[in-house]
Amino acid sequence: MTTLRGKLSNHLFLTVFSLLMLYPVIWWVGASLKKTVELGLPTIWPSTPMWENYSKGWHFSGDYTFAHFFGNTLLMELGNVAGGVFTAALVAYGFSRLQFKLRAFWFLILLLTMMLPGQVTVVPQYILFNKLGWVDSYVPLVLPHFFGGGAFFVFLLVQFIRGIPRDLDEAAKIDGTSVYGIFFRIILPLIKPALVTVAIFTFIWSWDDFFAQVLYISSVDKFTVGLALRMFIDQFDIQWGQLLAMSLLSITPSVIIFLFAQKYFVEGIATTGLKG
Amino acid sequence: MGTAEPLSQAGYAEAVKAPGRKRKNKGETNLAGYLFISPWLLGFFLLTLWPIAQSFYLSFTDYSLLEAPVWTGTSNYANIFSNDATFTKSLSVTFVFVLISVPLKLFFSLMVAIALSRNIRGMNLYRTAIYFPSLIGGSIAVAALWRNMFGLDGYVNQVLAWFGIQGVGWITNPDTSLGTLILLNTWQFGSTMVIFLAGLKQIPQELYESASVDGAGRFRKFVRITLPMLSPVMFFNLVLGVIGSFQTFTSAFIITKGGPINSTYVYALFLYDKAFKHYQMGYASALAWILLGIVAALTVLNFLASRYWVFYESDGGKAK
Amino acid sequence: MRKKRSSVLALTGLTLLLAATACSNSGGGNGNGNGNDGGSGNVAGANEGGETKAADPITLGMMWWGTDERHEATKNALALYAKQNAGVAFKPEFMAWDAYWQKLPTLAASKTIPDVLQMDAAYIQEYVARGQLEDLSDIDLSGIVDPNVVENLKIGGKLYGIPLSQNAQGIAFNKAELEQYGIALPQKNWTYDEYFQWARDARAKLPEGKYPIGDSTDWGGYNMYQTSMGKDPVMADGGKKFTLDKDLFMTYYKTYEEFRKAKIVPPAEKGAAFLENDPQADPMASGVVMTRGATTGSVSALEQLMPGKVGVVNMPTGPSGGGWAQSTIFLSVSANSKHKDEAKRFLRWFITDKEAGKTLGLTRGIPINPDIYKDLEPTLAEKDKLGKEIYDLSVEKALPFYSAAAGFSEWVDTYNKEMQAVTYGQQSIEDAYDKINKMGTELAAKAGS
Q: What residue stretches are annotated with the ABC transmembrane type-1 domain (chain B) (predicted)?
């Protein structure tokens, strides 16, 4: 249906727009290969690329390479994503489809927990986790994801589930399916795009969450990538080349995951046999 | 179904009141409901409640973090409201930020999501490229990049110079610094856009097909199908956008530090400084609870207004 | 019904299982938290090499900030101590400067500050005033640290931090460009009048877009001026005495106002964009300003940005002197430590032991202990020499280092913001003075009560 000209102009627009958004990557790649003295220059590309920014950065710590820190972070992320996606779906289904006492009240509480700035709960929380003996482990970072994955994701999934027509549930109910069956067999497959969204955001946001990581992790062998990166920055002395090189590497997992998780957005739910 | 009836039925309150159509055994649904929300409930009681209660208590104390808290009654609140010019300033900076950046980001990300929802070859690459700015989040590179773009000798001013316009130091001019941060915030529209994208993909294609049969044009389809079907997701983005923007912190923290002359001293940054830089956690806690009050009030308004424009497929649209 | 129940069970089971994996996942290492028993990593390992096993081995927690070079050297020094002292192991924790000061208040609140911690002159008053640090006056430092230095570092008559290295405040200048434009290089022991005149003269010779000196909005710069003119420091006696001399204040900032008009200092918008030690935004490395403040500890970072171009001079002086030269980095012992005696023994060793000195090298600056420095002098690199030069130039006229008193951190922010409003032309110097003076006087009254 689309004409060739329309297609071309689509691509042209998207390419220009993408390049505009990608400007930082280009700048970043160039900067990561520069010598410190060259960073002040307006040129994008260095005169001679300093590949050793990458090799030195990778091996900066005497005891571990960045591979170790990537491993740590991915392990932590595995827990976060698994816990977050599954429990957020459970909780969201409860809030959006089931009727129970005080439902509105609990939902209100859920939303309220998002509105208090984290800066004032971080200290009591640290004291709590410290008493439980969880400091310098991943428990304080991972465990919260297993309790519904946070209000943001619960609310997000609630909105998606409420967008699904109730006829499907009703039909299943008549067939004798329990609420649990409805959740696993009907709702879960239908909200797949939203679940992928939750997974991606959980991944990216916990990768970024430096404040929590610096507080709870103190041994180098447990360092995440985010913590390792901060080792390049001190009060006066910043290892710019290595910092830029390693932080560029540090975002690649997120980029790859985003790139591959996309097909789930594309595959809408139209194919799942909804009657019009 | 071709002509969905948007914008009419079903607000949130209504949904809460009557979600299930068949009254079943009450005890049983109660049990099922609580079972499903139990992960959150458990977490709330085990991990969240105590720190929240603690911060509420601390808001009535003088607490330096380095010494035990001392009860001072409501004096933190009294001081905030009676003689703290910085409170007023940071609150107004934050209001301006929210008022401009939330609608701007919603509009922009919806437009981009629609452009990216089509199935074109190579779309996954475009999407990733466009999502990229949101991936780099609060990284150090962002601060450096932003200085590069909006500095006195930055790229923006170089482009303006072609047109004979003398630019300012966008970040360091008190009149433009907040606007620059809003722009940065809008540039990182990726998350909102992805949620729209997922929402768009959830709209059954059959609706569009039958509308085409009825002879509806592109615009009409957008207004009659896309907008109402997307309204729950739009509502989500609006509510969360408001909640999140009131707590905006990172960009101000890494790029402007609140300056120049407090022009970008957003509320969360003010609160952070009080708590961890000036050792006044009690005062900061009071600030946090005031913010909670403001945001909660606005969220309630949002929910009340939502019954006039948010359309839930599960509640309305279909005859009983 | 039966089916229903089993799925309920399955659901609960699954949740529990997930929660359980989360715990086991994360507790990967020795998850026994902050306890002093979680001997960690390679440092504690060195202990095993010790010949005898003491009856009750103890683990000292130690926390510091710094660069990777410092981390490696310190870990090695700790291993050395553990080897020499069977029964002592360490749990080291290290991070960058920002993270350190973000984390420390939370540790204080949960009473888990490690036994030994690195301290900075900018923060020590706050932590001492709130009872977080142990009195170290009984550590015998005779023959290691100059008694005058020790006396100067005392807070309320007691020593709370063992000084580690020499530091001093001076001014760095762009030697290459000043010579290129035929401007005389700054001379040792110049006075404030000479400094200001030098700036005026240099303006005439510099092309547009370059400036001889930077603007001054922060309290530290003014405080040095006020004290060098023979007045009290802005804050004295732990913040109980507040002095903001109006005449000096007006003279100082009027001068900068004149300079702003004459383009001797960069305009406010440009000045606010500067970020020291950033390759693009450093006032000097970017080639915009010809001079800027630099310390013994920080000048090497600047030298790396513009190798071979940096020269140094001491701070401008007044009738009573100028600048400062003293230690600003310390090791302290937490007031909550359970191993205070062992910690103190370790602290003394840290600045006395020759072997340790060699291991630590210059990673915390020029060692305070002259004997150790003597051994290291031949290893000084070019960037370290500049730091040493600042120290040597400054020491003759140096005044004490004045840090903000406890409870004044917010006043410091207010000062800088009010003066920024002056540079942007949004407020008069007089109005700024009134606000700053009022707030300071009130704080001092509060501290005195």
A: 91-302
Query: The whole model's pTM is what?
Result: 0.88
- The closest CB to that of B171, out of C12, C273, C409, belongs to C273
pLDDT in tens, C203-258: 999 999 999 999 988 899 999 999 999 999 999 988 999 999 999 999 999 999 99
Q: Does domain B62-306 have CATH number 1.10.3720.10?
A: yes
Least confident of A199-208, B241-250, C288-297: A199-208
Point out which residues pair with C116 in neighbouring strands: C62, C333
Distance between CA atoms of residues A200 and A197, nearest Å: 5
Cβ of B278 and C410 within 8 Å?
yes
Asked if C191 contacts C318 with a C-beta cutoff of 8 angstroms, the reply is yes
Q: Which residues of A touch B1 (CB under 8 A)?
A: 276
Instruction: Give B185's contacts (C-beta < 8 A, 6+ positions apart).
Output: B97, B101, B105, B245, B248, B251
> Range of A252's domain?
49-236+244-272
For residue range C4-23, list pLDDT tens digits in order.
444 544 444 444 444 444 44
Q: Please answer yes or no on whether C102 and B276 come within 8 Å at the CB atom.
A: yes
Distance CA C62, CA C69 (A): 17
> Cα(B202)–Cα(B230) distance, rounded to whole angstroms?
9
Torsion of CA A163, A168, A172, A173, to 10 degrees: 60
Tell me the chain A residues in contact with residue B198 when contact means C-beta distances shorter than 8 Å. Answer: 160, 193-194, 196-197, 265
Nearest to B312 by CA among C86, A162, A220, C230: A162
Tokens of B127: 């999407």
Average confidence (pLDDT) over C160-181? 94
Q: What is the pLDDT along chain B (320 residues), one digit of tens a residue?
A: 333 333 333 333 343 444 444 445 666 778 899 999 999 999 999 999 999 999 999 999 999 999 999 999 999 999 999 989 999 999 999 999 999 999 999 999 999 998 888 777 888 888 888 888 888 766 666 777 777 778 777 778 888 888 888 888 888 899 999 999 999 888 888 889 988 988 888 788 888 888 888 888 888 888 888 999 899 999 999 999 999 999 999 889 888 888 798 999 999 999 999 999 999 999 999 999 999 999 999 999 999 999 999 888 776 543 22
β partners of residue C60: C90
Query: Does the residue A27 lie in any domain?
Result: no
Which pLDDT score is estimated for B315? 66
Q: What is the pLDDT of residue A92?
A: 96
| C18 SS3 class | helix
B313 contacts A197? CB cut-off 8 A: no
Domain count, chain A: 1
Task: Write out chain A in H/E/C secondary structure.
Answer: CCCHHHHHHHHHHHHHHHHHHHHHHHHHHHHHCCCHHHHHCCCCCCCCCCCHHHHHHHCCCCCCCHHHHHHHHHHHHHHHHHHHHHHHHHHHHHHHHCCCCCHHHHHHHHHHHHHCCHHHCHHHHHHHHHHCCCCCCCHHHHHHHHCCCCHHHHHHHHHHHHCCCCHHHHHHHHCCCCHHHHHHHHHHHHCHHHHHHHHHHHHHHHHHCHHHHHHHCCCHHHCCHHHHHHCCECCCCECHHHHHHHHHHHCHHHHHHHHHHCHHHHCCCHHHCCCC
The mean of the pLDDT values for chain A is 86
A143 at the C interface (CB within 8 A)?
yes
End-to-end CA distance of chain A: 23
Instruction: Using a CB–CB cutoff of 8 Å, tell me whether B108 touches chain A.
Output: no
In contact, A55 and A173? CB cutoff 8 Å: no
CATH of the domain at A251: 1.10.3720.10
How far apart are the two ends of chain B, measured CA to CA in Å? 14
